[in-house]
Design goal:
By secondary structure, the chain is mostly helical. It has one domain. 62% of the residues lie in helices and 0% in strands. It is built from six helices and no strands. The protein starts with a helix and ends in a 24-residue tail after the last helix. This is DUF805 domain-containing protein.
């Protein structure tokens, strides 16, 4: 549980390094919350759609999102946007790469026909281990004290 909420504690921290465990457990937390809220949102779809139809007319296209769980889903997305961005930048730092590479992956994923491959490449890159020992972005997050023992 510690690793799942650690990115929320390091909210605006774009410097340093993060290990794979921190990245993937935070991704698992996001998956659990989003799927749970989506199930609750779909389960209460009738009440949200009826409420939005009363408020905005019968042609409201966002009836599901106007319910309480739809708003909670949007709030969760806003809450984890900055920590997710910072965590991915720190994962790039763990691979001894600049965080600006993330911008290249984001823009590359928007290109038709190759965007899917770029997204798969980002997933593979996040699954690869970081550099052993300290690098230019900080000490090894798996063993922060072990790097200076023999220096």
């Amino acid at each position: 549980m510690h690793w799942m909420i650690l990115p929320l504690k390091r909210y605006f921290e774009f410097s340093g390094r993060s290990c794979r465990r921190e990245y993937w457990l935070f991704a698992l937390l996001n998956l659990i919350v989003v799927v749970g809220l989506a199930i609750l949102m779909m389960g209460t779809a009738g009440t949200g759609a009826m409420l939005s139809q009363e408020m905005a007319g019968a042609d409201e296209p966002f009836g599901l999102l106007m319910g309480g769980f739809g708003l909670a889903l949007m709030a969760w997305g806003l809450l984890v946007f900055i920590p997710s961005l910072a965590l991915t930048v720190r994962r790039f730092h763990d691979r001894d790469m600049s965080g600006w590479w993330y911008a290249a992956f984001i823009f590359g994923s928007l290109v038709p026909y190759i965007g899917f491959l770029v997204s798969i490449g980002l997933i593979v890159l996040m699954a690869l281990p970081g550099t052993a020992g300290p690098n230019r972005y900080g000490p090894d997050p798996r063993d922060p004290a072990g790097a200076s023992v023999f220096e």
